[in-house]
Amino acid sequence: MVSEHSAGGDTSALALKILVAGGFGVGKTTLVGAVSEIRPLRTEELLSEAGQLVDDTDGVDQKATTTVAMDFGRITIRSGLSLYLFGTPGQDRFWFLWDELAQGALGAVVLADTRRLEDCFPAVDYFEHRRIPFVVAVNCFAGARAYGAHDVCRALDLDHGTPVVLCDARDRASGKEVLIRLVEYAGRMHTARLLDSVG
Amino acid sequence: MTETPVDGPLEPGSQWYDGEAGPLVRPYAMTGGRTQSGPTGVRFDLIALVVLDPAAPALDDSVLGPEHRTLIGLCRAETQSVAELAADADLPVGVIRVLLGDLLELGCVAVSRPVPPAHLPDERILREVIEGLRAL
């Protein structure tokens, strides 16, 4: 790693970022809360309406501003190594915010509800196009018909190898398992790309 | 700073402001209208980590605003990410970025750079993360 050290500072702390995406009400905040050691914090980003239309959202000096709330949580692996989880804004009109969130992300969890699987299509598309490693975690809601991981994988037409995990977003152990699958997968993807780039 | 100056008793129905109305100070007023951090031009990632610089100069109130001091206070307790600072100080991330730019230029804090997109942490770190998650 080249750059976890600050310019001119003495911190060697490393922070990693994982995104939690999916449709509205699918359980993103619940999942973040289940595994986070801090209560889910909300952070707000102020953006101009005009900024949505351009790539560069730095110019937030317009008059009309929109406040977008993002949930996040933290897991301390050890002193100096933390994992941050960000729930992506649910509404489609905040897509442009995802680019910033996705910058440097280790990977993403796409939460899906089999009763309305189509809600997670945009997130799947987004991460596939940007080649950001992701796992699909099917939040098994009570009353939803149970589908196997294979059915979900086919229904979403996922790229070969993309993991599909059945989970309960309220359950800490289940959430941990989802994150472990993601980190393992991100590691495999990364290694494969390194091999591609030298071969 | 967010208080409404009240002169004398309020007439019934004249209380325009309450918590639901939102902040009385427009967020970027705290930055003097600036929406981008100073000449260093750094854009802090949400997970960039902020630590106090032990060699920070002693600064008086004319240099630092109350929000700057809030940030310093939060960082004094422990290393904080930009996102945590925004949540704890209850300010938009954009405002935090400008204020942090000031603190960085004044030599009060050091800010870690985020991992560039093309560089995932090495395998050893990922293994540590997986083991750490298992042990939770």
Automatic annotation (TrEMBL), chain A:
Listed CDD domains: Ras_like_GTPase
Keyword Lyase: no
Domain of life where this protein originates: Bacteria
UniProt xrefs under InterPro entries: Gliding_Motility_GTPase, Gpn, P-loop_NTPase
Pfam families named in the record: ATP_bind_1 (PF03029)
Keywords tagged on the record: GTP-binding, Hydrolase, Nucleotide-binding
Nucleotide-binding found in the keyword field: yes
Family, similarity comment: Belongs to the GPN-loop GTPase family.
Protein name: ATP/GTP-binding protein
Species the sequence originates in: Streptomyces musisoli
UniProtKB/TrEMBL annotation, chain B:
One Pfam assignment: DUF742
UniProt name for this protein: DUF742 domain-containing protein
Organism expressing this protein natively: Streptomyces musisoli
